[in-house]
Design brief:
heterodimer, A: 445 residues, alpha/beta, D-Maltodextrin-Binding Protein, domain 2, two-stranded antiparallel sheet, 12 strands, 15% strand, B: 304 residues, mainly alpha, MetI-like fold, 2 domains, 13 helices, 1% strand
Amino acid sequence: MEGRRLPLKSVFGIALAVVALIVLLPPPAPLAKIPNRKPVYFWHMWSGEWQPIVEGICQRFNASQTQYEVIPLQIPSAGADSKFLVSAAGGVSPDVVSQMHPVLGMWSDRGLIRPLDELMTPAEREAYVREAFPIMKKHAIYHGHIMALIAGVDVNACYYRLDHLKEIGLDAQHLPKTLEELVEVAKKLDRYDKDGRLQRVGFLPQTFQDFVPSFGGAFNDAAGNPLLGTPQQRAANRWVVSQYKRLGFDKVTRFLSTQAADVGITAPIIAGNYSIWLDGQWRVKQTHDFAPNLQYCVAPLPPPVGGRPFASNTAANFLVIPRASRNPEGALAFMKYWIGMDDPEAGGHNQEQMSWLPYCQRVANAHSYQKFLRENPNFKPFLDMMSSPNLEIPPTGPNQSFIMDEMQKVGESTARGTKTADQAIDDLVAAVKVEDKRQQRLGHG
Amino acid sequence: MTTPAPSTLGSRVRRFWRQNGAGFLFISPWLIGFTLFMGWPFLRSVYLSFTSYDIVSPPHWIGTANYSSLLHDDPLFWKSLWVTFRYALVAVPLTTVVGIALALLLNVEVRGQAIFRTIFFLPSIVPSVATSVLFVWLLNPELGLVNGLLRAVGIEGPAWLTDTTWAPWSLALMSLWGVGGSMVIYLAGLKDIPTHLYEAARLDGANARQSLRHVTLPMLTPVIFFNVVMGVIGAFQYFTQAYVMTKGGPEGSTTFYALYLFQRAWQYLDMGYASAMAWILFIVVTSVTAVLFTSQKKWVHFGR
């Protein structure tokens, strides 16, 4: 028995020694680098070429004042939402989150993020509402509260390959004026190989959402609730289906599968897979960086006959303050610096570095931003669109993630021809209706 | 004369601790980890499945509403269950047959046998995310190796992962990539079959096919049973490949149960609902396993 007791004591001893060692080990180096500053923990999803730019913005903010230190942390996009949710549930969330997925309505309704109204002064609120472009307010204000500041908004316009247009006798001064004309031009630009496979597509719509604003529609009603199954959405989807049908559903599926990742040198417009490509303003910087000699021009999507000009579906990069933030004042200061509320020159510099659109004309007029516009004339059409009332935001509300997933299914079925355009929209409306009722029964609605 | 109960109990506890204390201390990190990170969440999820819980606000008791909604109001629940069940129905028999066939082939004494075994086993230890990315390219309809080979013999292959008809079967076929794991277990099972049974069969005039039918397969049934049970459990938890390769598409044709559960929990913030889904999955898997355990009396030969 004595022999058995001894090992037990040894086990205790070793365990205690290990615990003591762990306790005595020096703590990890603190993330904060500047003494006597209140830390502002900032989670973002910007990787690759964007990460140093974002970190540069943080450094400039840290250098611009003496109260706060922003500590950026890059979170991989795929798991970012779940990581944030876990942190929020644990009460140790970051102070600022940059979010590129359309979740503002859902996060607001669930109380995950703080209304910025609570933190802004009345003068700041008034200035923001007065100055901000209409599309910025559509994205940032949810049910009457400013829930986010928009670090950048993606507005779509058509990129035209001038060398392709030249093949059919067109140039930058003779671009299509209507969507119908665009289709006729696109037909002439399609190219097939000897086996009948698509080699190049004149113009290929990606989602029906991209065309709804041009057809006169939106995704939210005046009260900010999701609006689905409207005649304009149906018309847009019918048009999209007609384009896939024209090219052949199977041919398009196969053509799309040959496309590499759409960033950098393999971007569709750079690679020449498309002659006309509907895309966001950020592609101007990509093209400048990866194909500086590419001959192209940009113009707003031509509307269908009777449709709305200067229209686009848009996406936003939100800056939000989680409810569990320990330093919301510092967070707001950083967010205001990013977009240039207090310092338009700094904001203009931040925006042009990211190749983003400013939140108001005052920032657009900043010297740094104007210099960027002079160097990148293809960016100007996007800025011109910013004051347009025809820019729309994705569906919002507590079930917006569900709606976005169902919209994706609309895109998949219409691209493959498995449903008619109207059937796909009907199914979307029905699925969302069922989900809304279900959520109400479960006490969410 | 009997000793008082408390002292008996106390002495028993002391004796038990003396005899087993060191062992428990050694496994205590695992015990503590299991209790905290598995046992507690496991029990907690039972409670959460009866609540409306979005991870941010405190759970709100709603009784059996989640279960009722799942069974009566949620077409995606039934669809995802069917997608998963159909996958299990195809992938488990497929991997079982191919696993046994490979094990039989690799059990033949030939030069380089160990190398062949290694080659067939290696794919099963490649991380599933890496495998998924690899297969996205292999199954690319235009640039992929699979359709390239088919094209070489005059067949235009389908759009494997982007066609609603083919996508679920593509994933089922892909399950063969990991067959090396079960193959090794079958090989071990084959090695465990006593040679005297083959000698007796030969003396009785059995040929190779008859030996396989009447000796090898019956003796291998405990191993087959084990692999089938594990395969069924794995199939019902199928997630990674669908998440990486198809995200549940096209048009929900590969929305497996675990993927839908994940969406409910982390995309739609329906933790209570997702907990109910997890418990329904647990019941389904337990039921299927129970059926397998019941049926094994008829086809598994444990005796020698």
